[in-house]
Amino acid sequence: MASIGISIEPNAKKKEEKEGDGVGAEARAPDQPNGCARSFHSRPLSTANTPRSRQSSPRNPFGSSSSYAPSNSFRFGVMERLGLVSGSKQRKRRVGKVWYRKRAKGVAVGAVGLLACFLLVNWWMLSRIQDSNRGFGYGFLRANSSTLSIREELIKLGKVKRPQKTIYAKLLAKAVHALAEGQNKPEPRELWVEPYLLASTWRPCADQRGDNGYIMVSANGGINQQRVAVCNAVAVTRLLNATLVVPKFLYSSVWRDPSQFGDIYQEEHFSNYLKPDIRIVKELPQELQSLDLEAIGSVVTDAEIMKEAKPSFYLKHILPILHRNRVVHFVGYGNRLSSDPIPFQLQRLRCRCNFHALKFVPKIQEAGALLLKRMRQNGRNLGPLDHYLVGPFSETKMKRKKGRSTKGSKFLALHLRFEIDMVAHSLCEFGGGDEERRELESYREIHFPALTQLKKTAKLQSPATLRAEGLCPLMPEETVLMLAALGFNRKTHMFLAGAHIYGGKSRLAVLTSLYPNLVTKENLLSSSEIQPFMNFSSQLAALDFIVCTAADAFAMTDSGSQLSSLVSGYRVYYGGGKMPTIRPNKRRLADIFLKNNTIEWKVFEGRVQKAVRQTKRVRARPVGRSVYRYPRCKECMCSTEEE
């Protein structure tokens, strides 16, 4: 009906202009031009009583089947003339529709205007925030110091000519208004108070070490095995964040030395030097001394730890014991920490321990300095390693004599690893026949019972095969042949390290006959000077360590020897590339010695020199090798080529 009402309006006005008053005037006219019309109106229809459905759907006077479909305006004009629709009601309906359309249009225009105004104000506010070259336009914001500080910070963040885009522009605008309006509003109390009541029970302790408990170490073997054990224990103590009790040394039936840590090394220097890394105490606290460590499961033997154990082993198996009992005792501890993979700091700590923290006691330093002075024929010159080995005793007090050179002679230190324990354990033969075999077998039964049992239950390599593979220690006669082939002449001064060479003086006769200037510490020191060290094999070995390390050249006969490994590593660390070390390849030498009856001396010289020369290559520490022997690595030394 609404569409009909609107479409009728122009047609109705045109009809009224042409026909006068329209339907109303026609009804009041006295004379009708058509009688038919009058008779029709003689029975007028009352629209008031007509149902709504009939009002809303008037009949088509032309019939529904007519093919002619008149327009809505024409239809209502006819109906108005026929009296089916009231003219006044129709006019009211038309006026209402027009008013509704105008009102709806005004509301839409107003809504669009309000939205445009809101967007304009919002854009204006954001442009003030983002534009660093313009200030805020609000007077009350300019007078507010807190708001100005916000403005200045925003300007600092956006010092560009063009405004910077941000996804938080609207939220920033709201924050500016909120801070400006709430400047006098009290801040929440929890902003300035720690919200957790238990927070005060925590305190800083990252600078403390040893909170997990105490590590006790009883090291086995000789001085060199014990030295490795101590440095490994230091690294394990750091790994487990524990406190180290000053290590103890077990009495060995082989070495027969009751010396303890303080008899060989300076305890105070050891503790002070490592203080930044671990905490070291002399003994367990009183409350732990009464514990039966074996009963509570705190004793860990060497057999329970695999050789070259990784740090993960200690974290998985040892740390829980430490947490439970507060103490762990490593009994017979030795080489029980792998060389790789090890965290950088732990590897560096091992180097710091071996090359810096372990210094001999003054008694050993003084005797060592005396040996060095006599090996250099009382010369006043000092070796590059003297200071690190003998400390203040490196400064000689000898007065210069007129007409005599003060330059000391060079000397070679030789570690002839041919003691009975080494010979027996190798399972090799050294030309002594049945008597030698019986003697060595008896020694193995006493000192190496496990090896004796292995010989009975398993098929081992023959002595000839072992020698061909380079697994036998060099005999004194093989050693002297090597030195002669390398070019050392008869006048060379030699220091022989080691004690109680198997076979005694008769076995050494070949060495002394070819090199008459060969001496030992027993030859260089008087009986009174060496007396304090007698019956202390580890302290005597410390003197050998000093002389071999400080020598102008050092030759080893067994690269697997702990003394030779530690000496060669020390010479690399402090030597600056000026301390040569001879490391023979025993497998290649064994092949050369097999032809001793047919080979010419010149050929023998050439082959020996080539075999030894190949071992002098300078290289970084191979993966898995000991840092004590190969310190050329980033954890221990710095390379100038990388700078």
UniProtKB/TrEMBL annotation:
Q: Any one cellular component term from GO for this entry?
A: membrane
The Low complexity compositionally biased stretches are 56-67
Does Nucleotide-binding count among this protein's keywords? no
InterPro entries, alphabetically? FucosylTrfase_pln (IPR024709), GDP-Fuc_O-FucTrfase (IPR019378), GT106_glycosyltransferase (IPR052272)
Which Pfam families does the record match to this protein? O-FucT
Instruction: Report which superkingdom the organism of origin falls in.
Output: Eukaryota
Entry GO MF terms: glycosyltransferase activity
* Principal subcellular localization: membrane
Q: Where in the cell is it found?
A: Membrane
Q: What residues form the membrane-spanning segments? A: 107-126
Alphabetically sorted, this entry's keywords are: Carbohydrate metabolism, Fucose metabolism, Glycoprotein, Glycosyltransferase, Membrane, Transferase, Transmembrane, Transmembrane helix
Q: Where is the composition biased (Polar residues)?
A: 44-55
Residue ranges annotated as coiled coil are none
Basic and acidic residues bias: start-end ranges: 11-21
- Give the record's pathway: Glycan metabolism
**How is this protein situated with respect to the membrane?**
Single-pass membrane protein
Ranges for region Disordered: 1-67
One GO term under biological process is: fucose metabolic process
Q: Which family does it belong to?
A: Belongs to the glycosyltransferase GT106 family.
Q: Which named protein is this?
A: O-fucosyltransferase family protein
